[in-house]
Amino acid sequence: MASMHLVTIVVADYDLAIEFFTQVLDFDLIDDSPSLTNDGRPKRWVEVRPKDGETGILLAQADGEVQEAAVGNQTGGRVSFFLNVDDFDASYQRMVAAGVKFVGEPRTEDYGQVVVFFDIAGNKWDLLGPG
């Protein structure tokens, strides 16, 4: 049996990303530890995860020009991530109050409610809730 434990999001700044994911999206901060790059330079291991979620996100601060160019464009402008919430309206209102940028207005589809938003790095997400 296999499971996915982490996915990586390249960010411009660890602390701003932690604040966004924990304060705006209400994720848990699982780990924020000193670490080293493969060539021995200092970095941090920063992991966040939705409350009661199984798969977490490794927040990786961009290191060098290639990674800096990937911040906010990890999937070429497509929706990259999908956040399922139990209370769509409350989550949406909390995010609006926090200044999150949305693409259009929430809509109802066959599978439930949905609206696209941008994370702190500029990646597109679907906020999804029951219909």
Sheet having the most strands: 4 strands, mixed
Helix/strand structural class:
alpha/beta
Unreliable segments (pLDDT under 50, ≥5 consecutive)? none
Strand line-up across the major sheet: 1-4-3-2
Q: Output the number of helix runs.
A: 3
What gyration radius follows from the Cα positions, in whole Å? 15 Å
For the record, the CATH architecture stands as Roll
Mean pLDDT: 95
CATH topology: 2,3-Dihydroxybiphenyl 1,2-Dioxygenase, domain 1
What is the strand tally? 8
CATH superfamily: 2,3-Dihydroxybiphenyl 1,2-Dioxygenase, domain 1
H-E string: EHEEEHEHEEE
- The total tally of domains equals 1
> What is the CATH top level name?
Alpha Beta
In what range is the share of β-strand residues?
35-45%
Residue share in helix: 10-25%
The coarse overall form would be globular
What does this structure look like?
The chain has 131 residues and is of the alpha/beta class. 21% of the residues lie in helices and 44% in strands. The chain has a four-stranded mixed β-sheet. A four-stranded mixed β-sheet has the order 5-8-7-6, covered by helices on one side. It is globular, with a radius of gyration of 15 Å.
